[in-house]
Amino acid sequence: METIQVRDRSFAPFLSAEEIQTRVAELGAKISAELQGKRPLFLAVLSGSFIFAADLLRAISIPCEIAFIRVSSYEGTGSTGQVKQLMGLKEDIAGRTVVVVEDIIDSGLTMKELLGILVEKNPAEVKIASLLVKPGNMQVELDIPYRCFDIPNDFIVGYGLDYDGEGRNLPAIYKVTE
Asked: Is 92 in the active site?
């Protein structure tokens, strides 16, 4: 992997496609073992998690379902940390095991708000699966039992994560260079 250009910024290699695929397969096996017999509903948070969700679901060996949701928590270029709208959840999750699939958890504020909304719908349990977690940025306590990588507070792109709309299609993850 070599340095790439996305829009006006340079990005250096961070996680290779092979590292990502290995870790996603391991996580899929762990989830399959732990949720055996529960027929979980995976809720993939759009747009960033779509690639991770697709690969994760292919690594799940138990009966399951997937749905896609979108949350709105941004004003301008920054997150408010408050979910203004939950779009796309048409499934009845009462009594279900729900796994929220996210590409990256940064401050955790939006995820905490989303969990609150989901819990009001009376699921049996709600778990979080995240490709990336930035523990150094977390502002709230979250139980994230299914995570692939803990990363530092770098701006990253690739494997579903974008910079101003571009870079989601990259099979590896790159971090911005100064």
From this structure: no
